[in-house]
Description:
Elements: H1 34-44, H2 46-53, H3 55-62, H4 67-97, E1 100-106, E2 112-117, H5 126-137, E3 141-145, E4 151-156, H6 160-168, E5 182-186
Parallel strand pairs: 1-5
Antiparallel strand pairs: 1-2, 2-4, 3-4
Helix pairs in contact: 1-2, 2-3
Amino acid sequence: MSSESQSEPIRPIQVLYCQVCTFPPEYCEFGSSLTRCKEWLKESHPALYEKYYSNEALQSKLGTLSLEAQAKLEKDTAQKEAKAEKKADAALKKKMASQVSIKRMERNKRKFVTAIHGLEAFDVELKKASKFLAQKFATGASVTKNAQGQDEIVVQGDVADDVLELIESATGVFKSVPSANVVIVEEKKKKGE
């Protein structure tokens, strides 16, 4: 074998991704948060900022556009950013208004199950949370649909207070759940039962 056939392996290309929109910097303009992307790029990588967003670079890009098209492009970008910001604010408000309810229910005479509902609003993966609780309390835990058709975690045993402590201490999969949004709901038994 000759030395020519054993060529140097091709190294992978290192690609920089924007920390705001997760696109490469040259594609940030197609995202919904161009202004924040520009700020991040200016702070983190000034050379790339000069390459893509300096006055010369912008003039060369916009030289082919008419004034009306340029104004329309700026207006569309501003509208897109405002819309994305409103959407993010609405999602945050919805998340902060959501409640996690922990309910202890009687199954048989002295057997209880604990149902935890509302975790999905805080981006908690229910399967992982169920497995975490099952391991923590050495009981069975599963993800089921409740009467309203929403997913909830059902843990065997009366562990409502322990689950509350876990969520308040932000342990494991419950890191993103604020403890102020957690309530324990007492289920009242009807007199005829």
